[in-house]
Structure formats: C-alpha cells, structure tokens
Specification:
The chain is built from 18 helices and 21 strands. With about 525 residues, the chain is α/β, with parallel strands linked by helices. The chain is globular and about 65 Å long.
C-alpha cells in the first residue's frame, strides 16, 4: 500500500476494484464502511453484487476480465473533460502523451459492451474520482489474476498519476494482501528474480553484496515461477520440492496437473502446521509452529513490520520455521547459527535498505512502516510524498486484451472465483473451527436465477461443472448477485474443488500469475448415475 490503513477515513472518495473487502479483508472492509457512513463517496467495480455495491455512488458490474477497458474508459473521460492534474503530470511524470493517444479509442461508448457497464456510469466514475480532493484506490486479486493482471495495476497507476491522487493522505494505490505476511515474504525475496529487498539477481552490485555478507556465491540467474516449477516437475526436470505453508493440491490451478507433478518427484517435503491435502502426498512432513507459538515479525499490507510474540506453549515435536531452516542449513554444510529471531532481523537491516532502521527494540511497542532509512528514522506512512520516490513516475499505456480461456459453444459460461467471509484459503485452519465450518460446510456455485431456469435447476440442486481441464460436482446457490452467463465459486473446498477447472495456459508474462479469475465452463444439472 502506498498509504496507511488509518487513512481510509481521510479519503473523500474510495475506488474499490477487484476486491470484496468486507468478506476478504474485514478490518479494512470495516474502515471503508466507517468512511462511507461519514460521507466518503464509494466507487465499486466488481462482477458480483457484493454488500458494498448497495452503498456505492457508482456500482459498475464489470464483465470478468474487462478491468483494463473500464479503467481506460475512466481515463478517457478525465482527459476529454479536462479533469487531469496538469501540474502534477508536467512536474512528476513521463509518458503522458503516449497514454493520451492510446485511450482516445477507449471512449465509454466504445467500451460499454466490452466492460458491460453503461457509458454514463463510466463517465460519472471518472468525474467523481478526478474531482475528489483525496481519492484512494483499493484492489486485490480480482484484477491481478489475469494474463493482463500487471497491466491492470499499471492502468490504475495511470489513473492516479494523471489526477495527482498520490503522495497525500487519503490517496494512493493500495493492494490488499491476502495473508498476514505476504508483504513480508515478498520483501524477503520470495520471488525467482530478486534477492531480499527487491534487489535483482541480475544486479552485479547486489549480487556481490549478498555473496560477501554470506560468504557464498549466490544465484545470479532468474529461477522458476510456481507454475513453471510444477511444469518442470511434470516433465521430470525438477526432482525435489520443498513446500512451506502452502497447500497447492487445493489452492493451485489445474489440480490434476498439480497431483501428477507431485507424483513425478523423487522427494517431496512439506512444512506446515496441519496435515493438509498436500502434506498427505509428502515423503517427509516437518511440523511447524503457529504464529501464537513463536517469536518473530509479520509485515502487513500497509508495510508495517510488527512483533509476533509467543503466547502459548509449543506443540511437542514442532519447531519454528527459522529454527527448521537454520538446522537444515547447518546440515547442508553452511555453519551459521542464530539464538533468537532478533539476530535475523539485525541481518535483514544490514542487507535490505527498506529495513535498515528496524530492530526488535524499535518495534517492541509499535511497528514501523518501511522504508525505515536508519535507526532514527520514524518510518514512511505515505509513499511518494512531494514527488515520486524514483524521480519521475512512468505513465505506461496498456491495452485491453481478450482473456486466454475464451467461451464457445461447448463452454459458454464464464466462471470466476474468490473467497467467502467464513473461510481462509484451503480451510486447513477455518474448517477446524466448528462455527465457521457450520456457516459454510461445502462447495457451492452461485448462478443467476435466469440461468438456473434455463438449465433446469433450483436452489440446492447439484450441477456438473466442466472446463477444458476437468469436471466437478457442486451445489447450486441461486442468486442475482451474479449476472446471467457468469457463475462464481470459492476456492476453499477440496471436494468440488474449483481449481480442477482452472488452468495455467494463460499466464501474465510480467508476473507469472495464471489467469485464475476467468475460466470458460459448461454447467448442467447433475444426474446421479444408476
């Protein structure tokens, strides 16, 4: 996030796109609701009528995969009607003229059918955003899990830059991270092309720094993304896999492909807190500790590094992640020991510029938001104050593209997916909580009543859902939350698993993210075979 969670109340307007914060990010969802009650205007773009749509000043029920067309339509309106921040564009950006030329063809009237949103609503949304004193953007995987996901984020950046809605309280571009330490793991280099601190493996200075500090030659070639790893395993090119805190048998696209890939491995290690569906496939399971059983830090969605303290006695036989890694590292011949996670944080501060001023002593009572430049720096609640951090911000024009998994006569329906309020990812934790499980105990599919009538099903019936990759059976929820011709499922359930249907054929070339949010399917009433 460029801005802080506490600033939600400071926004005159909040634009939510590709996210259902009330159900998926309840803390921030509550903040947005509070802001709305205090007069903040709301723009919402989502294929489903979520709770927030009832409060939005403009609700745009955008077609799945049409986010870039919609955003470019808003930008077109802002430019044509002279609502840009010319001073900010001139002083702090480059590339505007190219964007201006490209979005000429994205008039709301031209893209109305592509986006599925009335032209007047697109225009109104653009005007409200541009004219707001402070407008903020909140987005999540509803725009990123497409083959053009990175470009959709760039489009949002363009929207903020041409209106100067950045670098001030209540403005900015705020991705809502889906897990409590996703930001932290990214910061620590959990990508195939960077060292910790987003330092490229192809940067010679960074490579020499890490090699000198660690006393080894660090990798200098870009590695594989998760889909590429599974493909390589499927072809026998990856023989060993170490999975930590993930359950790809349920959570990753094309479940059949994942299972076949895991079976091909010579050796699979899974490190987790529960015996997940993936752990059941492992040759070796390393039992880890939960957050409440260990000391450490999490870096949350607003870049705040916070202390985690041991609150309960550890389960016998399980160990903290850092201790497991250290012991393995020592057994592999690299002799480095730590007595406490604080020593690891000191090493992070030495090697990662954004964390340079962070120590356990400094975050004992209150976390700090990176970048924290030195031991006296108070952190950075807002990024790009005054001007963009790297000088001039790049405005990069992006184009709408057709999705990778196109509907046809055999697969005429668009399936999209997400979470619900009661479960978290693959339910390895929430399914063990009786109250949550009782609220949402099984796989289901949301279908518009018009479509229900057309295929001859009613609430509670079972349907067979098929894609180019597989078939599942799940239960019908008849609802007008979703449009006719589009259906919605969660990815929480191992039985009736939506990821048997999703695929990895369409990949974002910039990020390696599969197009999980759009799958062409057929839906028909399930007939029990006698």
């Amino acid at each position: 996030m460029t801005n802080s969670i506490s600033e939600t109340k400071d926004s005159d307007l909040i634009f939510v796109i590709g996210s259902n914060p009330r159900e998926n990010h309840p803390v921030i969802g509550a903040k947005i609701k509070e802001a709305y009650r205090n007069g903040t205007k709301i723009l919402l773009a989502d294929p489903r009528k979520i709770q927030l749509s009832e409060e939005a000043d403009v609700y745009m029920q955008v077609n799945v995969g049409a986010n870039i067309a919609l955003i470019n339509g808003m930008i077109h309106t802002i430019i044509v009607e002279g609502l840009t921040n010319e001073a900010y564009i001139k002083d702090h950006t480059e590339g505007y003229e190219s964007l201006k030329k490209v979005v000429e063809k994205y008039s709301p009237e031209e893209i109305e059918e592509i986006a599925g949103v009335p032209a007047e609503d697109i225009k109104k949304a653009g005007r409200l955003y541009a004219n707001a004193k402070s407008a903020s953007i909140y987005y999540a995987m509803g725009i990123t899990q497409f083959k053009t996901g990175t470009n959709a984020v760039i489009a949002l950046s363009n929207l903020a830059l041409i209106t100067g809605q950045i670098g001030r309280p209540g403005t900015g571009i705020n991705p809502l991270r889906g897990q409590n330490n996703v930001q932290g793991s990214c910061d620590m280099g959990a990508f195939p092309d960077i060292y910790p601190g987003y330092q490229s493996v192809e940067n010679k200075i960074a490579m020499e720094k890490f090699s000198k500090n660690w006393g080894v030659e660090v990798p200098t070639e870009i590695g594989l993304t998760l889909p590429q790893i599974m493909d390589a395993a499927h072809h026998g090119d990856v023989k060993f896999l170490y999975i930590m805190g993930e359950n790809p048998v349920v959570s990753d696209p094309d479940t059949t492909h994942i299972l076949e890939s895991l079976e091909t491995l010579d050796f699979l290690v899974v490190q987790d807190i529960f015996m997940t569906e993936t752990a059941l496939k492992a040759d070796l399971v390393l039992p880890a500790l939960t957050f409440a059983e260990k000391d450490g830090t999490f870096t949350n969605t607003e870049r705040r590094v916070q202390m985690v303290r041991k609150a309960i006695q550890s389960v016998k036989g399980a160990k903290a992640d850092w201790l497991i890694f250290m012991e393995l590292m020592n057994k592999f011949g690299y002799e480095k020991t730590y007595d406490h996670p604080r020593e690891i944080m000191d090493e992070i501060a030495e090697l990662v510029p954004q964390y340079a001023g962070i120590s356990y002593e400094r975050i004992e009572k209150q976390g700090l938001q990176w970048p924290v430049k030195d031991k006296t720096h108070l952190g950075t609640p807002i990024l790009h104050v005054g001007k963009p951090i790297n000088g001039k911000a790049k405005i990069i024009h992006v184009e709408y593209e057709l999705p990778g998994d196109l509907v046809n006569e055999e697969y005429p329906t668009v399936l999209t997916n997400g979470r619900n309020l009661y479960h978290y990812h693959t339910r390895s934790m929430t399914a063990k909580t009786e109250g949550l499980h009782s609220k949402s105990p099984e796989s289901y599919i949301e279908i518009n009543p018009i479509m229900c009538k057309r295929i001859g099903v009613v609430q509670g019936d079972m349907v067979e859902v098929s894609s180019r990759r597989g078939t599942i059976v799940t239960k019908v929820r008849s609802t007008d939350k979703i449009q006719d011709g589009t259906v919605f499922m969660t990815f929480h359930f191992a039985e009736g698993n939506v990821n048997i249907l999703t695929g990895t054929e369409a990949i974002d070339e910039k990020s390696g993210e599969p197009e999980l949010k759009l799958t062409a399917v057929s839906v028909k009433k399930y007939e029990v075979k006698k």
